[in-house]
Target: Deoxyribose-phosphate aldolase
Amino acid sequence: MKLTQAQLAKYMDHTMLKPEATAEMIDKTVAEARKYNTASVCINPYWVKRVHEGLAGTDINTCTVIGFPLGATSTESKVFETKQAIEDGADEVDMVINIGELKGGNDDAVVADIKAVADATHEKGKVLKVIIENALLTDEEKTRASKLTVKGGADFVKTSTGFSTSGAKVEDVKIMREAVGPDFKIKAAGGIHSLQEAYDMIEAGANRLGVSASVQILEEAAQQ
Model:
């Protein structure tokens, strides 16, 4: 696989989710995204307004996270957080599923949680990605979570928060692709640090990459 720097940039959600992120760090992330024209900038909800304003005049989306990073907040909280984020300027929201309910076999609760956030997101014409946190799941649970994400009406299923025991793995992207079929979108996130790792995720079936090392990877792409 070989993509131009510009093509690869449009796979990337340029990410700054560190809890210690300052306004200066957020502004630097926005400036980098503008320089390389990434797909989005992904930040915690507090920073949505600032990022949305910083991306004015570009086609770069503002992406934020919901119920992050544990997924164990109430559905009502996730819906409120989603609506507030969209009001503040979010174009895309990445929510974490209720991992405990998935592992406990309560699929109806998982779907209801996703659907409530999907409805709030789509009501405003925005995009929902659902984080299933593969590091905590068996292969059977990864498959089931991916299928429940489709059933809940989301737009993407996403591998990881980047805050658990491991991030995206090629094997997991393949499992997710098999579960959701050829057309549903997949985001791989967490631990993608090199051009080869980015290519491996895309070849496995990822449509989007959540990356904090975007600059390093895109500079590597420019030199290939």
